[in-house]
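Project channel, design review

CF: Before we commit to the Rhodopirellula maiorica SM1 constructs, I'd like one complete example in the thread so the newer folks can see what an input/output pair looks like. Taking UvrABC system protein A.
RD: sounds good, go ahead.
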Amino acid sequence: MIVEHNIDVIKTADWVIDLGPEGGAGGGLVVAEGRPVDVAKVNGSYTGAAIAKSLGMKPRKTAAKASEKILSSIITTTANTNTHVLVEGATEHNLKSVDVEIPRDAMTVFCGPSGSGKSSLAMDTIYAEGQRRYVESLSSYARQFIGQVQKPKVERIEGLSPAVALEQKNLGHSPRSTVGTVTEIYDYLRILMARLGTMHCPDCQVPVGTQTPDQIVDKIMALPEGTRAMLMAPIEVQSGPASEDTWQSLRSTGYQRVRIDGVTTALDTAPMLDPRQRHEVQVVVDRIVVQESDRSRISDSIEQALSLGVGVLEVGFAEADVEEKLWKVVTHSQHLVCGECGRSFNNLTPHHFSFNSAVGWCPQCEGLGTQTGTNPAALIASPTATLLEGASLLWPSVDKSVSQWMMRAFSRQTRIPIDVPFESLTVSQRRILFHGTGERWIEVREGDREADTKTSPKQDVVVFRYQFKGFYPALAEAARLTPGLRGKLEQFVDEIDCSACDGSRLQEDAAAVRWRGHTIADIVHMPLIRLAEHITTWKLDKRERKIAGELVREITSRIHFLLDVGLDYLTLHRGAATLSGGEAQRIRLAAQLGSGLCGVLYVLDEPTIGLHPRDNQRLIGALHRLRDLGNTLLVVEHDHDVIASSDYLADFGPRAGRYGGRIVARGEPTKVLPVDQSVTAGYINGTKSIAIPEHRRPAFSANGSPYVQLLKVTGARENNLSGVDMQLPLGVLTAITGPSGSGKSSLIEGVLYPALARRLHRARVRPGRYEKLEGVRFIDKVIQVDQSPLGNSPTSNPATYTGVFDLIRQVFAELPEAVERRFTARTFSFNVAGGRCDTCEGSGQLKIEMHFLPDVWVPCEECDSRRYHPDVLEVKYHGASIADVLEMQCGEALELFAEHDKIARILQTICDVGLEYVTLGQSAPTLSGGEAQRVKLAAELARPMTGRTLYILDEPTTGLHFDDIEKLLGVLQRLVEMGNTVVVIEHNLDVIKCADWIIDMGPGAGVDGGKIVFEGTPEALAATCTNKKRGAVVSSTAPFLAEVLGQKVPASVKRKALPKTPKKTTTKKKTTAKKKASKPAAAEPATNGELQSDQASAAETNDSVHPWKVLGRRWHSLGKGFPADTEPEWPIELADMILKLLENVAGDNSLRFDAPDRVVVRPQGQQKNWAEVETKTPESLKVTLAGPHEAVDVEQLSKLGFNGAVQPAETEQAEVTLRLTELKHARSRKLKTFLKQHLQRTIET
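CF: and here is what came back for UvrABC system protein A:
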């Protein structure tokens, strides 16, 4: 008798007794008994069903029981969670029992008015539940060290993947954290420099080689006679009892002394080494006095020490008045030594290139790389100018010939090029410029008079000599001699590069190591776009490829991911604490792209913040790649392009706060249902938009004379600004535009605002460098609203932040009931003791610590969540207590305090920016990003104005929906109507198009920016994108603004505004072939028949001369070969993407590059061509598919969303023509599915 579950055993039994039918209370009965075949026929027996399946018997069809129906529903639900994330009954914050199905492996966008519940569902429900489930999987011991999340208010979430949030949070405030360390690129560079870098002497800047024992003897004998020293051999000694064995071994070989941690001890009394500490041990080989008569003895001791120290010798110089631990110790090595000065070096490891450990950091700045001093940017006229063009402001005027002589002599003797831009100089070259050449005399010769020097005896004649002390020492000496200059230089005092390491943060041995002629400091100071181009010049040989091939691949891929998200202007040296929230989020996004994870749920909070429209497509492409890896993306976003490129849209509304919290419409972006209830669909399909002003306030007349007063900034040179002169018209709405990193914030927030605040309000801020500021008399106040966070304190709320609560408390304190009880305004504060509830300290709730579980907040029973003592609550204003006021919406509070002008003005401003639904006491952490931004804005706008106030706003549309932006623009326009000036730093095209005046920065970012590209009206800026003038600077903003203003922009013009991508190097052979074929390639393509004959004759002569045969797919991704040298109206990258897609569908080696203007696709083993791609038609990329009528799914073709026509032929064949014009067409999953299905049906028939 066997008790068994295994079917293989059961079906071979002679007799089976089946118990059931269920387990527990549902069982206890004999369901069936008999032979296995008989049991298999019994209905209701689970064992019988399993036996029947195993024996291949067909089960009898019976009516499903209730239990089976339940099981079936569970299986159906489970199957649904494979394709969707199911959320039921979400009630977090203002959500009203929201149910939603989010498609997996797709990009879903949550949009809607600010405060409508998007982040509550995405971040506080879905992501929080994913985090909570992960933390719960850990042990209770591990959970106590992790910040735990409370269970969100939701009934059920199924199909949830591991969740990662990419929020608008700073990467940290540590000065040691940089872009390089955050992205881990610097870690790979450390290994690369340690393994393949060439060591250089920091003093002589020559490569380091090895030295012989005789050379070491000569160096020691060259010391002053009578020098007392110890010759020591450094050794590694194991701690603990093993150290005593080492002492015994050394004694047996004749040694008498050992130096442990800087103290010399006799071997007989040497202590056992403490295993808990790290020790430095040197064996004292000899104690010497340098004199010629002892040369033989010293030579023998040196050889003995080098043998014991494995090629390393340490010389300790005895000083009678100094403690032995502080004696100077010089290391000599047989391994590494400078050939000129004789300095010895140790082998370097990756730890020596780390500025976060004592092994590698600079001893003066301890790895921070900065010190207080004169800002070097103040001494440079333009970083893009050469020294010969006057880049240095301290060098004598280069217009004078003597100054040029001196500069050529300086360049000849220091090897610093004077004909390259200052920004291209290496760190060591800049160090010489800033710190000088010491006591060295620089000789100016006759040959230095001319630029083209020729060697002759006459030109070697010395005309005069001078010493170059360096910019910093010269400035310090001038300030010492001229007291008046000292005060002027105070404005240039800033955090500057450390004088010891020049900002490299490393000790000098590691900082001098070079790879391909550059130190690690040179590499990390390059903008990423330039660094990507520089890395392509690294040609590795076989040995280098084996050592660093993977390192270089990893560095390259991570840099390209950063370029893909629009961060090409950053450097790896940039401090993480200086990055904006948007930049930090995009760095995290690039890191996730590089990780290559799949099956992850990514939650992103407005990734387009701080991003110029030109970079949107690159960001969207990065998001799509993350999705195509097999991840689910959940994006909270208001940007039109991101919403339109998503796979699924959930529209929240209908309004914000308590009037929102529902999903009013959902579906694909172009098919949102119900459309009439959606608050976003109208802006996506074009039926609704923010109106363009009918009339703009004029600033200048047609002949250029101003209609208004001007605020002029001359010679601004902060950060990347290159001597910018700006004219800001007063009394109008001005938008400052340009790519991220082009210098907008440097000009407005770095120069203009600090300069005005210093003059008008005596603020203690340091303005950036500028020459002159004019027109200050026309304004009497400046107010700035920046991107700083509102704060996460639970006691902070809109009432306290805007200051209206102070006024309200004063009103309550003046009421007769309060005066009678001697209550003051302080009594009505919930932040200080006196009137607040002592139990909950004014918060209205209590925190209960749950140790291994997340903390729980419960209502305070003492005050019933009212925050105050009962006697304080008895004081009422028009029937409302102070607690009632805090629970009021701003609109209701405005009616209550209408008689108090100061309170009413602040509350009216809050309502004007669209926050009438927010309660005065709502905790700051519970406000959405857009709500917090508008609370800050209301606090500043509510300040008393004079009609001559300048308002500076940095991206005020952050977190705002289209409807919210319309309300914001109304407030800004009213401010201007009252005579004030509003300056907005903005990327949002809806704000830009409504401005009266635009100042566009650019043309690029970083070193490619820093200039004013355009000043004028939006219409004038849009008109520049069609400027045919040769050499005209292209504005990155113009083509996108022109589209918003309703103008048609050619694709070629739009592409010029896009950021440059690193050039890929090609072989010399390919370049030659390309040049030879450039003429015929530029000619107009012939007809199909002519092409075939031409190709046949060309094949007979020489195939290699045709560039389309040599370059293959790359030829069709070049902007050449179009009729009459026209430029395509579609992105040229589209051709490569479509060819990759077709090759992926049809298989490897399926592409035929037989013609210059088209590519034929023929799958392996097939006789006929399946597809043809015409790549040189200017209007569109034309794809023609050939196959039977049955291969064409007309319904699926109509869903592709772009031009596609079926042309039936007389035979059984039919052609499908697709005209592609946008990159999103190539990324369409529907297109890929259609192509696969068409090819499969074509092959089958």
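RD: helpful, thanks. The domain at 179-197+510-573 is CATH 1.20.1580.10 (ABC transporter ATPase like fold).
CF: DSSP finds 45 helices and 43 strands in the chain.
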